[in-house]
Design a protein that fits this description.
The complex is a heterodimer of chains A (153) and B (326). With 153 residues, chain A is of the alpha+beta class. Chain A is 20% helix and 18% strand. In chain B, β20 and β21 form a beta hairpin. The chains are: A alpha+beta (153), B mainly beta (326). At the A-B interface, α1 of A face β1, α1 and β14 of B.
Chain lengths: 153, 326
């Protein structure tokens, strides 16, 4: 199983190009860990609660969530951290050293707005949800063309 | 005055378990919120690539990232360290960032990777990375790189070694930014510093050692080094602008084989040949890579000798770590 820390909000930076390259967006993968990972109290609402705090007071409500997926290793999910280094037509973007350069902060996103309502409710209430690859597969897609991510299969 | 908000990064029992998580959790409009976000880093191996981005910052409301458990001038696996696998390690995109005390070591790079990458920083900006150690891994390690953009950055009290990526390893300064590089020690890198700026880019280099470069200690592609560049030393025959540089020097470190690049007491290449930067007009420095207060005459490089032995000893306690040199 892997555990994925996800951005649950859409930030908006003033400059559109900077916003695309640097702004945190709904469904961006932030950190990937193996099953049973330790999280901090501001990453995990459950950790916050376990330390005796009120669920309603969790500071990162609506900002971060955790999705737990039995089966794939963290290594397999790590591609979800990749920046998009091609433009939206698929043409490679490179830096001054001729290395791949970020065009968009992430190549992939979890379509948290489209997942089944029960999962949304769990994320809202608990700050995390456990899903199977089959349940989440169709909702992890590439930004530029909505191709489905097959790396967890 | 902006409110300083402190969050912790610890392997357990803290607010976050990785710096990457903390950046994502805390990024917001600091200006509108009138706040400084201080992230305190405790002893751990942090394996998640870090991109400092997504916040709106200004000169008084910024990221202030501090290694509370800080090294003592030698890479220390018992302190906070950034060690992601085969990715660029620390990328800075936001405009106003202070990062004090990072240790960076990309694990197993299979393709050219940058340990410290100043990337989409715009203007105005003031990015400071201080008291840092970059431990390269050979032919796929860049060390420090800059992307095009009109950023302002200040790099001080850093040790960079074993970054031998050809035509880039060490510090390759590109783009149109303004950079001050002071009190740095490079060892066994392709370059010490290569200035290949474009447009209006300028790098001012002071008190920098380029020891045992695999290619060139100091290289200027075109144009000129920044005003005031001087007091640099190399083990080959290259130098920067200035009249106080030292070339073809032999540097004596405490234990280069063990990656301890403190100057030995008997060093004759850099000891006492630096310039006092404590009142530098653009980038004053008051502590060295160990957190020690230099005495006159200053050394070239990241390591100075303290005014009173042990006063601010190598491995300064946590209570002293925050704020030193800033």
């Amino acid at each position: 199983m892997c555990e994925i820390l996800l951005c649950a909000r859409n930030d908006q930076l003033a400059d559109p190009e900077k916003d695309r390259r640097c702004g945190f967006k709904l469904g961006h993968v932030v950190v990937v860990k193996e099953d049973g990972a330790t999280w901090g109290r501001l990453e995990s609402k459950q950790q916050w609660i376990a330390e005796g705090n009120a669920a309603a007071d969790w500071p990162n409500q609506g900002r971060l969530v955790i999705v737990k997926i039995p089966g794939p290793t963290a290594a397999r999910a790590s591609a979800l951290l990749d920046e998009q280094t091609e433009d939206d037509l698929g043409v490679a973007v490179t830096d001054v050293f001729d290395r791949p350069l970020c065009f968009r902060k992430r190549r992939w996103r979890a379509r948290l707005g489209l997942i089944p309502q029960a999962f949304k409710d769990a994320l809202t209430a608990d700050g995390e949800v456990t899903v199977t690859v089959a349940q989440i597969r169709a909702f992890i897609t590439r930004f530029r063309d909505d191709a489905v991510f097959a790396g967890l299969d | 005055m902006a409110t300083r908000i402190i969050k912790t990064v610890k392997p357990s029992g803290g607010d976050y378990t990785s710096l990457a998580g903390a950046i994502a959790g805390e990024a917001s409009d600091f200006v509108a919120g009138d706040k400084i976000i201080e992230l305190d880093l405790y002893a751990m191996q942090d394996t998640a690539q870090v991109t400092i981005s997504g916040a709106t910052t200004d000169a008084t409301r910024y990221w202030d990232i501090v290694a509370i458990d800080i090294h003592s001038g030698v890479y220390d696996a018992a302190k906070w360290r950034l060690e992601p696998t085969d990715v660029d390690a620390l990328v800075i995109d936001d405009e106003f960032v202070r990062f004090y005390g990072p240790q960076i070591d990309i694990q197993g790079p299979t393709t050219p990777r940058v340990e410290l990458y100043l990337r989409f920083i715009g203007t105005p900006s003031d990015v400071r990375v201080e008291r840092f150690i970059i431990a390269g891994n050979g032919a796929n390690s860049f060390g420090i790189a800059t992307e095009s953009g009109a950023f302002t950055a200040k790099l001080g009290n850093g040790i960079i070694y074993d970054c031998t990526k050809d035509f880039s390893g060490g510090f390759r300064f590109s783009g149109s930014g303004l950079c001050y590089a002071e009190d740095l020690t490079f060892n066994n890198c392709f370059y010490g510093i290569r200035d290949s700026h474009g447009g209006s880019g300028t790098i001012t280099v002071k008190n920098v050692i380029a020891s045992a470069p695999t290619d060139t200690g100091f290289l200027l592609d075109a144009g000129s080094w920044g005003a005031g560049t001087d007091y640099n030393a190399s083990s080959d025959g290259t130098s920067t602008a200035g009249t106080h540089n030292r070339v073809s020097q032999t540097f004596t470190f405490v234990n280069a084989g063990a990656k301890n690049f403190h100057l030995a007491g008997g060093d004759a290449g850099a000891k006492g040949f630096g310039t006092d930067l404590s009142a530098d007009a653009n980038y004053p420095i008051t502590k060295d890579v160990d957190g020690e207060t230099p005495v006159t005459p200053w050394n070239i490089g990241a390591d100075q000798f303290a005014a009173v032995a042990g006063l601010a000893s190598r491995g300064a306690p946590r209570s002293l770590a925050r704020g030193l040199g800033r």
